[in-house]
Write a structure and sequence with these properties.
The structure holds 2 protein chains of 2 kinds. Chain A is of the alpha/beta class. Chain A has a domain of about 170 residues: 3-Layer(aba) Sandwich (Rossmann fold). In chain A, β7, α8 and β8 form a beta-alpha-beta unit. Chain B is mostly helical. Chain B has a two-stranded antiparallel ribbon. The longest helix of chain B has about 40 residues. Classes of the chains: A alpha/beta, B mainly alpha. The interface between A and B is medium-sized, with 28 and 21 residues. Bound molecules: adenosine-5'-triphosphate and magnesium ion. The site of magnesium ion has 3 residues of chain A, from α2.
Chain lengths: ~270, ~400
């Protein structure tokens, strides 16, 4: 650890955190890829029922930190995580934690839409099937339809649920992936640049969707678009070279950033 | 005369290159405006013209007057020089030699692919004609549906069915052995093994693929066949000393590397994003493989199986050595059987007059075999095409 003089002293606890329950508590998290350290001593409290945005220049560790929350880093060779991450007060890096169950609680939406080469129905039914959530066929159908409705995709696909998920447009595919993620009723949804492969109209629909469902989930979205962060999130975290520089109320961060680096980044002076 | 002609063509080609390049270089040095194409392109173009003119002339003369005629080198020299002279005049500052040269590149590429196509066509026709000669002596109905194969007895009988049955039986055994082994080891290599393990396994499998089938054949005859027989006898079964089972087992081992290495590539081609999507939903590794990776790779795996099957059908050596020559119509894997390829080989070995029904029947067998594998390969190709479209 380099103890650089300008280590971020976290701003006062964001206002919004006092109003909502805290869902995720990370303390002193370090992530290494082999010898290279990608996340340095990161601590953060993320609230429930709100959207938190992660912003920062490319390669600063946003995706890396996001993947620690559903332990997707486990699938990467040579990736090592130290420190504690608590979800609802329980450490998800405990030895006896069931990763499979954790991932059912923490859904993820990827940068590039990745529907399975199966029917639209089967894509959404995937999670409920492997976790045995549906009790009957009718139950499963209801889950699928509801998830598609929540992802505001149902109207567009209701008469072709048996078509391949890969036959949809990019924006529809991404909404399908969101439907797939919410079909197992997760508590947390991680989104890694969910709109970066989409055109502005499709992005706007995803943003609307995020806004509609945020009451029921703890949502974390990584984005490169300041405007998107400002539009959809209540809290914003700014990452820089593996450090969490600043985390706070979105409106405050964009109007009165506390750190020089945050200010430089959001005004476009580097990135 | 041929060697002289070849020498002349080579000399003309080289001359063409240097003359063309020199003229273009001269133009370049003389003027202020730049050339459209680099001098080397002018040289290449002129060389190609000379080569084409002289080469085609040679072939034409050889076809008409025979390769020993004195006309051949003379005509080649004349037309080659003519081509150089003609193209010398058209080299100007603006001449698009670079674009024109593309045409020759294309011609060469077409010629190369034509060789493979023409060979195939030639083989098909030669086999077809001999088969037709055979069918003028033996009726196709008798050949295709006859259940008795005895080409050397008097009178001979040419019933394909026992051979087809033998071929299918051995192929079936081979696929039953190699399918699961190959596919499961591919899954292990692609999804479970560490990179180090894979680095050991894959070359080992490739070594197995490289074992000549003759060697596999005597492994089958000397090791596996007696083993099968002893095992069968200890169970109280009556096993022929050369059995379909022994040949099928060894043939299965032969195609394991084919299936596993093709399937391994296909499984690796399934985008990582699909696996990540599945893991992120909370699926375990085997669930991910079963529900996402394999369904996505299925068309490719099916076509790998098809290729393996046509390989097994065409295999001769192992069967000659391990399954015997008896044309029994049976589906009992413990009996001796024979296959289409084995019969072709035995029919054509040694001194035979080439127009008896006995030898001609080999071509008819070959034709049947060809149609069979053609259909299999066609199906495999169609499946692969559908598979290609899928991820885009
Ligand atoms: N699988 C990996 N193996 C090794 N190093 C990695 C791996 N993934 C990421 N890194 C490194 O970790 C650092 C953080 O990467 P990360 O992907 O988290 O950045 P990011 O903030 O998401 O960037 P972007 O905005 O470009 O997506 C980078 O320096 C990257 O090179
Ligand atoms: Mg990223």
């Amino acid at each position: 650890m380099d103890a650089s003089p300008q280590m971020p002293t976290l701003s006062k606890v964001p206002r919004i955190l006092n109003e909502r329950e805290t869902k995720i508590v990370a303390s002193d998290v370090n992530v290494y890829y082999g010898e290279k350290q990608a996340i340095k001593n990161l601590s953060i409290d993320i609230p429930d029922r709100a959207v938190s945005a992660f912003i920062g220049p490319s390669g600063c560790g946003k995706s890396t930190f996001l993947r620690t929350i559903n332990r997707m880093n486990d699938t990467i060779d040579g990736c090592r995580v130290t420190g504690d991450i608590l979800v609802d007060g329980k450490n998800i890096y405990d030895r006896d934690l069931d990763v499979v169950q954790l991932r059912a609680r923490v859904g993820m939406v990827f940068q590039k839409p990745n529907p399975f080469p199966k029917s639209i129905f089967e894509n959404v039914a995937y999670g409920p099937r492997i976790h045995g959530i549906a009790k009957s066929k009718a139950d499963l159908e209801e889950i699928v339809v509801n998830s598609l409705k929540k992802a505001s995709l149902f109207e567009e696909v209701k008469d072709r649920l048996d078509h391949s998920g890969t036959s949809l447009s990019g924006g529809q595919q991404q909404r399908l992936c969101i439907a797939r993620a919410i079909a197992v009723n997760p508590e947390i949804i991680l989104m890694d640049e969910p709109c970066s492969a989409l055109d502005p109209i499709a992005s706007a629909r995803i943003e609307e969707l995020i806004d509609e469902i945020r009451q029921n989930y703890c949502i974390i979205i990584v984005t490169h678009s300041m405007q998107q962060a400002a539009r959809v999130s209540q809290l914003t975290a700014f990452f820089h070279l593996g450090d969490l520089v600043e985390f706070g109320d979105t409106d405050e961060m964009f109007t009165t950033p506390k750190d020089k680096r945050t200010q430089d980044y959001i005004t476009g002076r580097f990135g | 005369m041929t060697s002289w002609t070849l020498l002349i063509i080579a000399a003309l080609t080289a001359t063409g290159f240097f003359v063309g390049q020199a003229k273009a270089q001269g133009l370049r040095n003389a003027g202020t405006a730049s050339l459209h194409s680099l001098p080397a392109y002018h040289g290449l173009l002129m060389a190609s013209m000379a080569l084409a003119a002289a080469g085609i002339t040679t072939l034409a003369v050889a076809a008409i007057a025979g390769p020993n005629s004195l006309v051949m080198p003379a005509a080649a020299a004349l037309l080659g020089t003519g081509a150089i002279a003609a193209s010398y005049r058209i080299i100007t500052r603006d001449f698009r030699a670079r674009n024109r040269f593309e045409f020759f590149v294309m011609l060469v590429l077409i010629a190369c692919s034509a060789v493979a196509v023409l060979t195939t066509v030639g083989i098909v026709f030669s086999v077809l004609f001999e088969s037709l000669a055979f069918f003028s002596e033996v009726s196709p109905i008798e050949f295709l549906f006859g259940t008795h194969w005895a080409p050397t007895s008097t009178p001979p009988s040419f019933g394909l069915i026992p051979l087809l049955a033998g071929t299918l039986l051995i192929t079936f055994i081979a696929i039953v052995v190699a399918g699961p082994l190959g596919l499961l080891s591919a899954i292990y290599m692609a999804e479970y093994s560490s990179r180090k393990m894979r680095g050991v396994l894959k070359p080992m499998l490739e070594i197995l693929a490289g074992v000549p089938t003759v060697v596999l054949g005597f492994f089958a005859a000397l090791t596996v066949a007696p083993l099968v027989r002893n095992a069968g006898e200890s169970l109280g079964l009556n096993v022929a000393s050369e059995s379909a089972l022994a040949a099928g087992l060894v043939m299965g081992m032969m195609i394991v590397p084919l299936i596993s290495s093709l399937s391994d590539d296909i499984i690796n081609a399934v985008p990582q994003a699909l696996r990540d999507g599945s893991y992120a939903m909370g699926a375990t590794k085997s669930e991910t493989i079963k529900r996402v990776v394999l369904p996505a790779a299925l068309p490719g795996i099916v076509s790998a199986f098809m290729l393996a099957i046509s390989r097994a059908i065409g295999e001769t050596m192992i069967v000659v050595m391990a399954a015997g020559l008896a044309a029994n119509l049976t589906f009992n894997p413990l009996a001796a059987v024979t296959t289409i390829t084995v019969q072709i080989a035995t029919l054509l070995v040694g001194d035979q007059e080439f127009d008896s029904a006995k030898t001609l029947s080999a071509f008819a067998l070959g034709f049947v075999l060809f149609c069979f594998t053609l259909v299999l390969n066609y199906i495999a190709l169609r499946i692969v095409q559908r598979y290609r479209e899928q991820y885009d």
